[in-house]
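Case 269 in the screening queue. Each case pairs one protein sequence with one candidate compound; here the compound is adenosine-5'-diphosphate. For every case the pipeline is the same: read the inputs, emit a complex structure as tokens, and attach any notable structural observations.

Predict complex for case 269.
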Amino acid sequence: MTNIIEVNNLSFRYKNKFIFDNLNLAIKEGEWVSIVGPNGSGKTTLAKLLVGLLPSNDSIIVDNLPFNNDNMALVRKRIGIIFTNTSNYFVGETVADEIAFVLENQAYKHNEMESMIHNIAALLEIDKLLDKDPQTLSGGEKQKVALASVLVSDPKILIIDGALEMIDANTKKEIFNLISKLQKELSLTIINLTHDLEETYYADRIIVIKDGCILVDGPTKEVLKEDKVFNRIGLEIPFMVDLSIKLQLYGLIDKLIFDMNEMVDALWQ
Ligand code: ADP
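Case 269 output:
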């Protein structure tokens, strides 16, 4: 598979504080990558660099286009991002207006917009919310609207920067299941930056960063076994991962299991 994002020797600093010094990273088209690290490790800075909110001096290539001033508009069309507080910036009087706002900015015609809004609302299961005031929605609904606003213009890459960390566990699961479905239907590449290791269950690959450096990079189920690394950098190991690692030591199961029912079945056999 081809690389949709390449980060080559990226260096970035705020005033005299280096956040990244020669960072290298490649993400394949269609991959779901979780970038995890404790607070202050550089996740949001990386997300901002990847969407061009901070300058990266030609060291980031998106879909074969170097991210620079000449290509800014083209590259931005390929990437959508949702942040923790995206909903603070809602401007529409209704959810439909909120989603339409993005399309208006990209100069879509009004007759195209209506079907685009309905299609994305159906995919995100928010059709019934289209006439509501976005400010009156629950946290989970707001994040679904934020996702719809980003995905309606059909980006190739979705970046989720801590956007679901404050959402309750059940709603988070529901939203991640929706994103999984969308990933397949829309052939999305997903980059989820978080300090919550439970969010990585959905990923194909985990990259662990600390102080702007990559500590571990590999398939999800391999990286989640690195409990010593997570302990050292202060990331909480999810209960099911911890339990799986211990049961594997006793030879009771032979892989990491994230779901309690699946665990019970495996132990019962
Ligand atoms: P994370 O998202 O992993 O918590 P950040 O990218 O937000 O990490 O921050 C990385 C480091 O950069 C932190 O030490 C933070 O204090 C610093 N930082 C973030 N934004 C700025 C800024 N605008 N000016 C100066 N330092 C910043």
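Case 269 observations:
- Strands lie at 3-14, 17-28, 32-36, 60-62, 65-66, 79-83, 157-161, 189-194, 205-210, 213-219.
- Residues 123 and 185 are 9 Å apart (CA to CA).
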